[in-house]
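Re: the request from the purification team.
They wanted to know what the chain is likely to look like in 3D before they choose a buffer screen. I agreed to run a prediction and write the result into the notebook, where they can find it.
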Amino acid sequence: MIDSPFSQGKSILHSLDPRVKILVVSLYSFLTAVEKRPVVLLYASFLPVILFFLSRLRIREVVKRMLPVNGFVLLLWLFLPFSFPGEKIFTLGPLVATREGILYCLILTWKSNLIFLTTLLLLSTSPIFHLVHALHHLRLPSRLVQLFYFTYRYIPVVHREYTRLSQAAKIRGFQPGNNLHTYRSTGYLVGMLILRAYERSQRIYQAMLARGFQGTFWTLHHFQWRKADSLAGVIFFLYFLGLCYLKWL
């Protein structure tokens, strides 16, 4: 989701202080996640739409990153409409789809896309190092911030290691199927991947100690609060006031 190419740009969102972005995403995600009324969600939909035009990102790239999320949401549509009691809409064999179940799925789909799109547009327009630095400024626990950074940094490394092991198995003639040999080989692959990830983590830890790492990441880039950040903060504050007013109206 936090893709490096998105952080290269000169839009208003790219120049916005990452601390403002993180606070806005956190508050927006919480307020949207606990809401169920369509009127409030319609008001909440204005923010990601405006952010999209301000970000100047290509719609094709944004939609491409939203597909995996909606793939997961699609699984909910296979079960929830048939598991909620209520007014019957149609039947599928012994399964009964209810009006309440379908409405519940619609609300979940709506909210998940709003939260993901807002998070994508705000956080992906800042480099990962700026986000980590901003989390430190917001006084989050240092170990939690470092865990977030290392997770982001080494997931691609683990994926490359998995690709290497998978290709080695194919070169040796391995063809996956629904049989015991495939299950055993897959288990060996996962075990080897965990073992190599552990060995790499030990090498990385020793290398960091050799370079004098004492639990603090130093950076040459420091944030400077500007008038534009204050203006953006006021605008977001007013927007959330309207959202809260509709929510508790």
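For the purification team: Residues 142-210 form one domain.
Please add any questions underneath this entry.
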